[in-house]
Amino acid sequence: MPNRLAGATSPYLLQHARNPVDWREWGEEAFAEARRRDVPVLLSVGYAACHWCHVMAHESFEDEATAAQMNADFVCVKVDREERPDVDSVYMAATQALTGQGGWPMTVFTTPDGRPFYCGTYFPPRPAHGMPSFRQLLAAVSDAWRTRREELETAGTRIAEGISARLDLGTPVPLTPEVLDRAVAALAADLDERWGGFGGAPKFPPSMLLEFLLRHAARTGEDRALRMARGTLEAMARGGIHDQLAGGFARYSVDARWVVPHFEKMLYDNALLLRGYLHLWRATGEEWARRVADATAAFLVRDLGTPEGGFASALDADTEGVEGLTYVWTPAQLVEVLGEDDGRWAAEVFEVTDTGTFEHGTSTLQLLRDPDDPARLASVRERLTAARAQRPQPARDDKVVTAWNGLAIAALAEHGVLTGSPPSVEAARRAAELLADVHWVDGRLRRASRDGVAGAPVGVLEDYGDAAEGLLALHQATGEGRWLELAGDLLDVVAEQFVDADGWHDTAADAEALVHRPFDPADGPTPSGTAAVAGAAVSYAALAGAPRHRELGEAAVGQLAKLAERAPRAVGWALAVGEALLAGPLEVAVSGPAGPERDALAVAARASTSPGAVVVVGEPDAPGVPLLADRPLVGGRAAAYVCRGFVCSAPVTNVSALGAAMAPS
């Protein structure tokens, strides 16, 4: 029989709707029941594409005896960390404080008022590797609650107070050129010179750092920063972390060489990486980077697009419980699909060996060098993709998360204008319309939707920052004023609800009160909320001529400046925004009627690598487009107006003059 999760909107919660565990969703009702029964809360946090979440569910939550023990001694609460990043943040801080590490599934025991007193992650069904079995843990916690209640409650109070202590980031200061130079030097010291990336295995795509390095190279002309970005982007593109057939990137590589991925594909990774490859292509003209960008854009639209116009959160790591089942190959399988000659050629090209690079003699596909016969490669890819489509496919988490859709909107809007691909811009517009029509409710954002219906959880800071980032990119791509207006509304909510005398917060002032009000200044797999808002605010200021928004962006970056000095790898997006502030950022209005003259100026303007540059193209005085206000034709011709920090140079009417006007000052 279905349990209480049967009515949830989260695909992750619905995965547990037929567990014999009497799961409840997070909320006051669950904690009231714990108080009524005088038992602890067992909080289990995960997400739909999480491999070990699936494992623990199968081993423990689907087991009748384990479920009976859970139901008898606890109120059991399931949380989708992607729907409730605020809850996840609070209890992950506790888990890391107590155990020195974190991850999912996360298993936390709390008092009936939410104070955590015991934390962990995955627990096996039988004792193993120094860990108790899950049922042993349940019995020990239940016994301690009955016999040592005061001790557990005291521990809960102490832990809650400890995680509530706010990280001292010092007095906000500007990010100076010297700080950014030192950040590049620190990254160079951590760089894996041979395989790219920073540090050792496991390796995650360092998307925010790559954007910083590309911007730093553009502002300073420093070749070292460009080499680091290019080398890492190429190593990832050629490795098994990249889907060599259908495009898209996996969450991370378990090894240092990008060979064996953790196979889940996340929307946020692919949106951020699309921009990285796009910006590298713009800076260098390297066609391989353009091909990767095109394939990643196609993956987003084809495999993650939802019928309502948004983008699904993820594809699972495993298929029918087996990691990599959809994606890996043996030499014999290649021959079976392609025939003897092409099969053996493909095995050589894609590094598929008899011993295998993954498990059970299978290999991930790599493309460590481009073959001499691109037409043959294209044919092989097409046939292998078709054959792979006949295999079982990973499940899809089809909830639409506001922040990650904002990142996808920005990436696709940029892809569309830089590569001349109207379908990418249209895909970005459809997603923005979903955010505007479904996620924007009574002047506030909701965190997620599914099947076109907004969920109850409210937006957190990253939702406002990333959504604004996407809307501003779409405004530039389309010249439509509604996206600039909505981005401004989002930033107004940020200023009112997420910043106060104590600094920045990840939850709104009027949001549900948790054990503590979370604030994480560091980037994770996506930009921190503070850095995301900083980038959007600086772009909005340039597009709308709004000094107070520039001040908001400067304040956000300043909040992270000390952390940038101590741990630059933690604040890549803030460093990238710092580059934009130092560069102006550049503001370019291309004004004139549609036609070849305006198109040529638009292409030249958008080719600029100046950090944080904003470009709007349209008719003079187009409604809702401040950058085109009072920007008339010059001598009857389309003209480009170039400004930095609200100070403008004389308009120009030809591409060479525009290039000179946009050159670093």
TrEMBL record:
Positions of the Spermatogenesis-associated protein 20-like TRX domain: 3-161
CDD domains linked: SSP411
One GO biological process term: carbohydrate metabolic process
InterPro entries: 6-hairpin_glycosidase_sf, 6hp_glycosidase-like_sf, Ssp411, Ssp411-like_TRX, Thioredoxin-like_sf
Signal sequence range: none
A Pfam family reported for this protein in Swiss-Prot or TrEMBL: Thioredox_DsbH
Name this protein carries in UniProt: Spermatogenesis-associated protein 20-like TRX domain-containing protein
